[in-house]
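User: I want to check something. If I give you two sequences, will you return the structure for each one separately, not as a complex?

Assistant: Yes, each is folded on its own. Here is the first sequence with its structure:
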Amino acid sequence: MKHVFLESHNIKNRYFGFGQFNYHLIKGLSEIEQDEQLKFTVHASDLKELQEEFGTTFNYKKYSSLSRHPLFRIRKKYDLWHSLNQNTKIEPHTQLPYLMTVHDIHFMEERSGDDKRKQRFNEKLSRCNAIVYISNFAKENTHAHFRVPAVPEHVIYNGNTITNTNIPEDYRPDFIPAQPYLFNIGEMTARKNTHTLVEMLVFLPNFQLVLAGNSNKEYVETVKKHISKNKLENRVHILGKISEIDKRYYLKNCAGFVFPSLREGFGLPPIEAMSYGKPVFLSNNTSLPEIGGAHAFYWDHYDPEYMAETVENGLSNYKENEQDLSRLYRNHANSFKWEETAKQYMKVYKSLLS
């Protein structure tokens, strides 16, 4: 019996990308055919909830913040340690076979003076016996900034979190826009570039803008200043964190999905929007063209009038070809499956354990 440790404590916050990834990879591993010679240990703080969902499929180890410190690192000698997120401070006490998933290295652009993060990432790289990247862009960007060890490297795309697009026909969220709306969801931080959507809305008088996701950040104040400056209080709606069913409602009923992010390692929200056959408007940078595919609409820069024109032209194109484009979007979204993601990770585990 081989034991794989999944360092997955970020699963506690599923409103963030890391939490979503951790949960859906673990769920995917639980749903594929199990290898009797392989046992996984899930590392998390709320074990009861996970045990109720996954039962004896996994072993469980309760997370303690003390384990972030070298003296209190986990001492059990697992056959393989998988660091599900590249930013975690949780490390094994001894040198073990080690796999890391790299989602992004945004800190190189966002916090260039943060030498501690660079040092920690370098130390994690030096531990690796193999590396998984969630996109080709993430791989290329890592190689551009760091000396990557000569170990096996894999690109494994994330799956689509929306596997069932249905919602009850009579369901209504607490807030319903009074006119056609554009939708955006994601953590509201500077790299998400959300304020450009507010400026763009000035040139789209027939639309409202719905912004969802964690907004407990200083940047939300910047967004609110742009709303106030342009007198858009009645047309821009900041909802904060929303439920899964609310997210699906807004995706299903929006005129289009808008995502002007400056830096993405993958970019899952556009795929979720495509699940509903919706047109998506994305930044033409980092991983987004790779993940968004050929039929998304892209902004090359963020002049608000240009952005609005891109949306108007895209929506017009979509309306003229709605049946074909909607089908293409759904097919593209359905090509990202967590079951397939889990199967590819399983192959990586077995290659390292052999």
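And separately, the second sequence with its own structure:
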Amino acid sequence: MPANGKHRRKKSTFLTRGLVAAGTGGAVVALPLIGATGAHAAEQAAPAAASGAVVTAAAQVKAQAAPAAQTAAPKTYSVVAGDYLSKIAAEHDVAGGWQRLYADNRQVVGENPSLILPGMKLTLGAKSTAKAAAPKAAAPAAPKAKAKVTQKAAPTGEQTRASRSTERAAAPAAAQSSGSTQTASSGWVTPVAGGISTSYRTAGAMWSSGYHTGADFIASSGTTVRAVGAGTVVSAGWSGAYGNEVVIKHADGNYSQYAHLSSLAVSAGQSVSGGQQIGLSGSTGNSTGPHLHFEIRTSPSYGSDVDPLAYLRQHGVSV
């Protein structure tokens, strides 16, 4: 029994005080901390949401811009002298090559894919909607000159008239010819200025006749090709293995042929003078590369060939 009749005060344990502190002060402290953490997280979430919105908007703009770029207007190309479809397709990276280029522009080019003329407008990489329009060809010779060649049928008279017409045309023809083109005083010229790459009657299995029926002149694509003498164009257009060709009848009854042309500047029935431009060299038809195949024939048809260089020399041309 305690002394002096006093009751002893029961001591609270450390664990109890600790629980009380945790249960009281801890609760007071915990509530502000939780609130602060939530506010801080919200502040961080807002910029993140804004950033996500910007990224989403940028992606939408990019997605909308892609179709617009794909549907941009196709390019248009204007044909110049010396052009041919395979060359244009290669230079402008046309998918599908010259076949695709021709298919897209067939209504402009026409039925002959090897015959394109300066001034034609071709659509690159898309179907052309342009209407077919033939570019302007070279102006026909003066009617007066034509009448002098075709007025009479007598060979002697025809030769005389052709000679007079040639003398009058000699000066303009010389002016048209390049400096290195061989021109005779009679008005006869070489068809191009280049030298010979394959001579007449060169033997070989590549030719159906077993030999070369003409003379090949060195000429890069687009080189001006000239009539060797005065005459009348009997044909101008596509001719199978010869590609685009021109055949001219001369006053002496012989015919000159110019093959593998990339473009034509004359048409059948037109009168021409010696040295007049009749087209541009190329590599159409059965050809291994740009050059001019030149023949002299006794008729307008294949198989009547004679030595073309000897013929030119007979007319005073140094070749």
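Because they were folded independently, the notes below concern the second chain alone. The chain has a mean pLDDT of 72. The longest helix spans residues 14-70.
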